[in-house]
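Reviewer 2 asked us to include a model.

Predict the structure of this chain.
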Amino acid sequence: MKKDYYSTLGISREASPEEIKKAYRKRALESHPDRNPGDTKAAEQFKLISEAYEVLSDENRKRIYDQYGEEGLRGASGMGGGAGGFGGGFSSMEEALRTFMGAFGGQGQGRGGESIFDFFGGGGQEGGDSGVRQGASKKVTLRISFEEAAKGAEKDLAIFNQVTCTECQGLGARTKAGVKSCATCQGKGQVYQNRGFFSMSSVCPHCGGAGQTIVDPCKSCHGAGRVKEKQTIKARIPAGVDTGMRLKMSGHGDAGIAGGPSGDLFVYIEVEPHKTFQRQGDDVTIEFPITFPEATLGCKKEVPSPLGESIRINIPEGTQNGKVLRVSGKGIPNVHGQGQGDLLIRIAVETPVRLSEKQKDLLRAFEEIETAENHPNTQGFLDKIKAFFSGC
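Predicted model (structure tokens):
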């Protein structure tokens, strides 16, 4: 059965090289084995699509195919392993996959998230011969006060970044003529070695995968296209952050290589402990001391909040040591904007010390007129002890 490569790619005989490439990307993506696991029909279609593109993307083979058809290709020299192999238009499976890599967003991805080129030792960027790479991301640790974490703040971060050279605009050379295609890899950024059935690729040792070399380097960046520069970046710290949280500042890392996107800046937060407040999520606890008479008779008190407010609370009569009073919505704002935590006031009843004789006499007199009803917890505990020993 004769093969119609034009029908396989869904294009006309007058299609331009760009149209042929675009059609191949679309068809190959649809029938790729990773998108159709276990589908033998799709796998065969993928092979046929790759075969069609291998022929139609090569000017000499396309001319032979147009004039003599598939039979002419079999007799033509330079076909190597024949149509559908990788001895001709594609030097390896990697090169074939590179052709439609753009359809995967710049880098082919397998089902497990790994790059398609990881299996071939490549791992390059789209195109393979442009050297375009994203700049490195940076990490800094920012220590802030408890108050800054509660209210939010703006902080200046001083970091050293690789920035695009202003002298050559990132070119690396004084002029465009100072950039030459790498003679070792022919501008591909990869070198290939045949090992029997496989064609293995690796990063070109001469150009480092850039696909080009600088013969007339820029005097400012010495051919790197980037220079190191100290930058001051203003970071907005949202209210409610806590230790261990990470803020991402997109595009504030190193400048990209050969026009690639800049890396990101990750800011890791450390919050200094507070002398008065203890944080538990969005809730804040404060230990609040009161006197024995205040706890006994009840009173009103002004309590500070983590946001600097003064909150008036009512301490009821007979408040026990360790009792926790809750004031809703007076804790730390949620960092995601989902409300605000509570303020928990733990009462600490202070036992009076260094009493005068008169004070002691008054306490003794008070003790004489006390009843069990004045100390229900104490009386209840004593009753339990008596019951325990009487049962022994």
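The chain has four domains: 5-119, 138-271, 277-353, 361-392. The CA atoms of residues 21 and 373 lie 93 Å apart. We have added this to the supplementary material.
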